[in-house]
Write a structure and sequence with these properties.
This protein is α+β, with helices and mostly antiparallel strands. The protein has seven helices and six strands. The strands form two sheets. Strands 1-2-3 form a three-stranded antiparallel beta sheet, with helices on one face. It has a three-stranded antiparallel beta sheet with strand order 4-6-5.
């Protein structure tokens, strides 16, 4: 492992021995591919030949999921992932109708109604009549709900910032440049400038 770039030594020690292609780590001058059979290999990156889209998709998805899981663990909660996601949407987009929230969270309306009931019972959201639709209600985050999401976000951001600080400046620059691309892939515009 001594031939690996310094930034990859600890990462490689954590992923050796897994059966599938585990990590594709890119830096400006080298590529690290880890497989069970081949071990560690480094070499120059052909800047004219991008990684096939299907392979890159798998790598990006796995990295995002792993980062999300680790960040989520920084602020444990009694809420389920679906409840946290719905609460985050209400905090970010509220007041919002149950149907709109169901659509945003890709859940059927009856399931979202039950989920909203639980968030309301926990004191994290309130319901009020929708002035535009007498039969509908609008969901709004309570101060408690907003504080819960702010604490979770702060804990996750602090955890991630510590890891970003430890990266070489070139790797941080690569990530900085990738952020707008990730927002675009998500089909959203960047809404926060922290």
């Amino acid at each position: 492992m001594g031939s690996l770039p310094l930034g990859y030594r600890s990462a490689a020690s954590n992923i050796i021995g897994r059966p599938q292609l585990i990590s594709l780590a890119l830096s400006v001058d080298s590529i690290l591919v880890v497989t069970e059979r081949e071990g560690l290999q480094t070499g120059p990156v052909d800047k004219e030949a991008p990684v096939p889209a299907a392979m890159l998709a798998g790598q990006v998805r796995r990295a995002i999921v792993l980062l999300w899981r680790q960040a989520r663990r920084q602020a444990p909660s009694e809420l389920t992932i679906a409840q946290l996601s719905a609460l985050a949407t209400v905090v970010r987009s509220g007041p919002i109708g149950v149907g709109q929230l169901a659509e945003a969270e890709a859940l059927p309306s009856p399931a979202m109604t039950r989920l909203a009931d639980k968030l309301e019972e926990a004191g994290l959201i309130t319901r009020r009549p929708n002035p535009a639709d007498r039969r509908g209600v609008l969901l709004t985050a309570t101060a408690t709900g907003r504080k819960l999401m702010a604490r979770r976000e702060e804990a996750s951001n602090t955890w991630l910032a510590e890891r970003l600080e430890a990266l070489p400046s070139g790797d941080r620059l690569v990530l900085e440049r990738a952020v707008p691309v990730l927002w675009s892939l998500a089909g959203e515009k960047e809404t926060e400038k922290d």
